[in-house]
Amino acid sequence: MRRTLLIAALLLALPWLAATQGQAQTAPAAPGRNPISAEELELQSALRGGVVDGRVSIPNPQAAVLIQPEGRDWRAFHNVTLAWVGGIAVLGMLGVLVLYHLVHGTTRIAGGRSGSTILRFPTIERANHWMVATSFVVLALSGLNLTFGRHVLLPLLGPEAFAALSQWGKYAHNFLAFPFTLGIVVMLLLWVKDNLPTWVDWEWLKAGGGLFGGAHPPAERFNAGQKLMFWITVLGGGVVAATGFLLLFPFAATDIAGMQLSHMLHSILAVLMIAVILGHIYIGTLGVEGAWDAMSTGEVDVNWALQHHRLWAEAQLARERAEAAAAPGAVHAGAAD
Amino acid sequence: MARMKFLCDSDRCIECNACVTACKNEHEVPWGINRRRVVTINDGRPGERSISMACMHCTDAPCAAVCPVSCFYTTADAIVLHDKDLCIGCGYCFYACPFGAPQYPRVGNFGSRGKMDKCTFCAGGPQQDNTRAEYIQYGSNRIAEGKLPLCAEMCSTKALLAGDGEIIATIYRERVQRRGYGSGAWGWRTAYRETVSI
Ligand code: SF4
Ligand code: SF4
């Protein structure tokens, strides 16, 4: 009984409650206090990380944003965070590589070159690799120039020459985005099947890839380090490309906040990738004797293959032997034509 | 030397766009570029305000801080200007600017930007004052002629004030005291890290 009374009382009170709330919402501001204060709006939007925007009568919807305080955060990112992260990553990696080379030196082919070779990368794979590699180098240098150029090159070249160089860098950066992206996609299609993680990778990683002495752990066509390299290139490169295209077509798909975010992702990932690729370049040239052949002629020495990619090399050699055994017939058939 | 500033008294602005038109005409600003614009907030609702906005010539200007080719410079009157011969049109100043002031002509392929263009406080650029070369790149240089920006001169309600920060703040303060209300100096906190105390 008591409960029903209470409910009835509440029901009766509802309209009154609603009325007072409505009043509170539409109540005019206290006299003498302006309802809109530029000062407060700016402060609020700065704290909330939002923008002050409205309507414009010119045909440029972006102009309707009156104040976007996030510009300050982007400035801090570009001038401080990115400069430090990029500087440490790139210079740090260079330092580590120089140190490693001084201490460890080139990893020689165990037992020297055998004189016979096997095919590691066919022409299409090499061509694609070099398309990605050359565009990456130009993209990386022109990108680094945007962050570090004014501190490093500007004092050396003077404003005119430096601006001209940066202008060409910008054009190159814009255009090479296309072959780079294409190459990343082709790379994914060509190599994904050899880059799926397996148990062999676990053993390889536990042995440190033979990087710090000890026996060379067995590996398939790509060892765990190369697989990591592959996924960093494909996934990192994919995100860098996607965010890059958002920046290349301003306001096509996103607003100013989206472009700031795109730039942050793009540049941070890019400097980290540059550091990783420096390591990749070192291993492919000075670091490991015989590795360069894989990407230049595509033919690697059999001893090198057995040392670094034993499982793959053995399978490859077994197949060659099987083909050779079947060869007489093939030669006959060929000669008959 | 004066510290030049803009102040828009939004309780006076009637969104007539005279400032926008004056600016476009004075400097022959190309199609698609607006150095000044009028933004109406709370359009059609209580508390509607129109604010005329252009480059505020910030203290410690964010655009100058991020420019990869360092092409900005600040005049003795604290007007923030840039050198179009050096600008590479990267768009960084636009990301950093809190007021969306930098504008870009669309040139060439994709969204490729041309040389950045923005309000010069009617002070031209690094070229020789009031030369043809300066006019083509930056528009007229009224400051060198001893005049103030045309947008503010043209303002039909005198909502837009341009000139020495101290003097325009005093004018605004007197107005607010006389009429008893004022919504404040738009963008001042962000641009100059200070506001007009009434
Ligand atoms: S309003 Fe924008 S363009 Fe003007 S000085 Fe400030 S940051 Fe630079
Ligand atoms: S668009 Fe021009 S002025 Fe703006 S940051 Fe880039 S180079 Fe500097």
From TrEMBL, chain A:
* Entry-linked Pfam families: Ni_hydr_CYTB
Q: Write one Gene Ontology MF term.
A: formate dehydrogenase (NAD+) activity
InterPro entries from the UniProt entry: Cyt_b561_bac/Ni-Hgenase, Di-haem_cyt_TM, FDH_cytochrome_b556_subunit, Formate_DH_gsu
Q: What class of enzyme is it?
A: oxidoreductase
Question: What does the record give as cofactor?
Answer: heme
Q: What keywords tag this UniProt record?
A: Cell membrane, Electron transport, Heme, Iron, Membrane, Metal-binding, Oxidoreductase, Signal, Transmembrane, Transmembrane helix, Transport
Residues of the signal peptide? 1-18
EC numbers listed for it are: 1.17.1.9
Membrane-related topology note = Multi-pass membrane protein
Q: What is its main location?
A: membrane
Q: Residue limits of the Cytochrome b561 bacterial/Ni-hydrogenase domain? A: 120-298
> What transmembrane ranges does the database entry give?
82-103, 130-151, 171-192, 228-252, 264-283
Q: Where in the cell is it found?
A: Cell membrane
Is Nucleotide-binding found in the keyword set? no
Q: Report the family membership.
A: Belongs to the formate dehydrogenase gamma subunit family.
Q: What is this protein called?
A: Formate dehydrogenase subunit gamma
Automatic annotation (TrEMBL), chain B:
Alphabetized Pfam families for the sequence: Fer4_6
- Superkingdom, taxonomy of origin: Bacteria
SUPFAM superfamilies per record: 4Fe-4S ferredoxins (SSF54862)
Which UniProt keywords are listed? 4Fe-4S, Iron, Iron-sulfur, Metal-binding
The chain positions of domain 4Fe-4S ferredoxin-type read 4-34, 78-107
Q: Which Gene3D superfamilies match?
A: 3.30.70.20
PROSITE patterns to which the protein is assigned, alphabetical: 4FE4S_FER_1, 4FE4S_FER_2
Cite the InterPro entries for this sequence.
4Fe4S_Fe-S-bd, 4Fe4S_Fe_S_CS, ET_IronSulfur_Cluster-Binding
PANTHER family according to UniProt: PROTEIN NRFC, PROTEIN NRFC HOMOLOG
What is the protein name given in its UniProt record? Answer: Formate dehydrogenase FDH3 subunit beta
**Could you tell me which species this protein originates from?**
Caldovatus aquaticus
